[in-house]
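User: I'm curious whether this sequence folds into something compact or stays loose and floppy. Could you predict its structure so I can see for myself?
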Amino acid sequence: MRLSWSDPLFRSVVWQTVIVGIVIAIGWYFIRNTADNLAARHIATGFAFLGRAAGIPIGESLLPYNPAVNTYGRALLIGVLNTLQVAVIGVVLATILGTLIGIGRLSRNWLLAKLTAFYVETLRDIPLLLQLLFWYTVLQGLPGPKQSWHLGHVAFLSNRGMRLPEFDWQPAHSWALLAFVVGLIGTLMWNRRAHRQQDVTGVRPAVWPVALALMIGLPVIVWALLGAPFQVELPVLRGFNFQGGGTLSPEYFALMLGLVIYTASYIAEIVRSGIQAIPQGQWEAAGALGLGSGQVLRQIVLPQALRVIIPPMTSQYLNLTKNSSLAVAIGFQDVVSIANTTLNQTGQAIEGIAIIMAVYLTISLTISLFMNWYNARIALLER
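Assistant: Here's the prediction. I'll summarize afterward.
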């Protein structure tokens, strides 16, 4: 077969080959230039530094950590866990708050509608960094532990953060949690079987008794058989500070407040627009059947609005996760803060930046994959 430049397929193959070659050449130039410069400055490359003792003090960690003994690798792992902790809890709280505010904007109550509109229009225009600094300053201005605000002498809020009761987690609780996961899987399988039976016979077996037995009864039985341990440690003021219980530091508290309140203002608009995208006839038809406005919203409108809400909601979840890197401005040690300290101490700037990129890329891809899967699951399919 004779190749001709007039053949579109031949031209496309040639141009794609040329472009790929140019990209590879540019990439090789940058890699080679970087390696030569590092060698000229006697800077070692690689990730061997992750095995050295870190010496980085970390105020909050989900894992035991000793800066004199533990390595840079463990310090970075703690930073990743801190970032995940902020992202997961922030996404859940921002979704709840944003959904409530979005629904409130459509309320027939004039005061509620105006207050939620003011919330959205104001907070979206204030930079997130400024909001984080504001909340951190407010928390630093709270009274000390002796004059702290309290809720029934169980939870305390002071300039040293929020002190809460702490649950004593024991192996029996881990087994009960595993039983709950098994029960959840069993409930989902039963729900799928009930759906298939409904398609065949028109009668749907009840799901809630099975869910109650598997997701509540089974974990309680496992917990009771293992001794039913239950102990809560309450914070107690001793001297100039509290002893016992769990602590939410001012840095973490301010970061969560800023991220949740800021992101919820965007989620509220997504929810509002998703609800308004549903034709008014859906409301009228449901009202004609005798359903209340709350039932219509929960059972008819919101399930349909999810198909409009989910795609832009994914972007907000990604934004919240990436915005958590602003924690360095108020002293919360996430993966960015710890990686910056690591590269300053070791001089491994390229490796440090690569770790930050890999962490955020992995989290972003995970969120995107999950949301795309959920979006495809709730999409309307033609029979």
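Summary: The domain at 72-168+231-378 is CATH 1.10.3720.10 (MetI-like fold). The first strand starts at residue 149 and ends at 151.
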